[in-house]
Amino acid sequence: MKRNFNEWLSKFKSSISNYNYYVDFDKVYKCAEKYKVELNILNSLIGSKNIEKEFQEIIIKYPETLEVIPLLLAVRSNEIFIKDSTNEYLFKFNKMVYSINDYIKFMRETGLFELLQNHIINNLYDYVLGIEVGLDSNARKNRGGQLMEDLVESYIVKAGYKKGINYFKQMYLNNIEKKWGLDLSALSGNNTSTKRFDFVIKTDKQVYVIEANFYASNGSKLNETARSYKMLAEESKLVNGVTFIWITDGVGWLDAKNNLEETFNVLDTLYNIDDLDNGVLERLN
Hints:
With 285 residues, the protein is of the alpha/beta class. Helices cover 44% and strands 14% of the residues. It has helices at residues 5-9, 25-34, 36-42, 51-61, 69-72, 100-109, 112-117, 124-137, 140-158, 173-180, 220-236, 257-266, 273-277, and strands at residues 79-83, 88-92, 167-172, 196-202, 207-214, 242-249, 270-271.
C-alpha cells in the first residue's frame, strides 16, 4: 500500500524533550565548583570602597583568580579580544600578558567592577551558577540529537535486538564491511568517505544501516539533510544485502517538506516516531 506523504507528515511531533533536556544541572554544578575557591576570594571585592586597589592586591597574591574573570562575562575561553578607540588587546587570563593597569581597565570598562562594587550581586558563586545555566542552554541542540538517538534505541531494544549482538551503535562503513564481508563502496564514494551510521541492525537476511534525527525548528540544514539522505537512499539500492533506514521527526520539517517529500518518494524505509510506535522495526527481516 502506497503511503501518503502529507498524512505521514501530519503525525510529526513538536518535541521529544524530557526533564533533563533543558538544563544539565550536574554539569552546571561541576563547572561552578571548579572555581569555587577563586570565586570566594573575589567575593571580597563585593561592596569594596577601593576596588581597583583591592583587585590589584588579589591578582598579585592569588594570580590564579585571573582565570575566572572570563566566566564572569559568560565566556568559556582564557582569551578575550578587545578593540577600543586607540588599541587592540588580546587579554589572556591563564597568564598576565599586559600590565595590571590594563587588566584593571578591562574590569572597569566591561562593567565587572560596577557589578561587584555596587552590591548588584551578593555572591559570585551563585552568580556563576546562573551563568552556567545560561551557557548550558546552548547545549540543548546536542542534547536534542542525543534524545532522538536514545528514543530510537529504546524502540530497537523493544523490537528484541541485543546490543553488540544484532544491533550496534555509531558504526563506521569500513567496520560494517569488515564485520559482514560487504562492499559498501557505493555508499562511501568509492572509499573516499568515512561515513558513520547511528545504528546498524543485522538480521538473518539483511544489514540495516540507520540514521536518526529530530528537528524541532527549521533551518537551511534540513534541506541539505534531505538531499544527502536522498542520495544515500539511491546509493544503498546498489548494494545487495544492505538497506538504508532514515528515522526523522519534528515540526521543523514543516517548512522544508518539499525536499523531505522527494526523499520520501524514493525511500520506502523513511520512518517517523509514529511508525516506530506501530512496530516498524519489529517487522524487519
